[in-house]
Each structure stands twice: as structure tokens, then as C-alpha cells.
Amino acid sequence: MRPFRRRPGGGCRTPEAPPLYREALVVFAGNSDIWWLGWLRSGFRHCFIAFNDGRHWITLDPLAHRTEVTVQAVPADFDLRAYYEEQGMQCVTAALAPTPLRCAPPGPFTCVEAVKRALGLRAPLVWTPRQLYRQLTRRSGKGGD
User: Fold this and answer.
1) What is the pLDDT of residues 60-80, one digit of tens each?
2) Sign (positive or negative) of CA dihedral 63, 75, 27, 60
3) What's this model's pTM, rounded to 2 decimal places?
4) DSSP label at 78?
């Protein structure tokens, strides 16, 4: 049986999907080989996500030409955050919560949109990696954690 969430003000309940992973790490990078991304803030030109399922780290990296899904060759207890931060990237541990089973708002397919969908995050005005970083750190109440 699916868990349900009651809508604000009563009314019908919306079924929810439980989180699939133990932990999610959103990684923000400043490098990009695409020249027109130069207008984006330095350090926030690309983002991707890493999930920990308790056995492996799995990365979902939405690139311009393809989306790479990789089971990393490190154990689940490996400090992936420290590894990425040593390379100059920003990392945010994202909260995993049940996601309402309804269509996400439409948006262009970008690295930001792919990460938002992977998290079940509904933030239609978040378009850039920097905006996503601010949204995630505001939601967690911790700057970068």
C-alpha cells in the first residue's frame, strides 16, 4: 500500500513515492567545455548528483550530449564529498523525502532539471546551478551541508 500525504486544507490525499536511497550528494562544478555557459556564475556552471544506496555510490551526471549513470568503484562508506571538495567542487547533502506521485512542472532538460527530478524537488523558478545550490542550502538550513 502506498503512503499518502494529506493536502493542505484537507481534501484528497496524494500518494507518495518513498525515497530510493540513503543519501544524496549534489555536486556543483565550475568547469564546462560549453562556451555559452560562461555567463553562469563561476563555480556553478554544472551540477550532478551522487546517491548512496548503502552498498554503492551511484552518480547521475546529465551532460549536454548524454546522461552518464555510473556505479562508482568505491565502497558506500567512502567520503565522496571530501573527494569532490578536494577537486574544488561545492557539495550539498540533499534531504531525501517522499515525493508526491504527480507530474513535475515542465522545464527545459538541463543538469539542474535532471537533479531536481532525481530529488523530486519542485522548484519551477530554479533554473541555474547557483539557484539550485541556494535552494538546497536554504531548505537544509545549513550552508553547504
Assistant:
1) 999 888 999 999 999 999 999
2) positive
3) 0.79
4) S
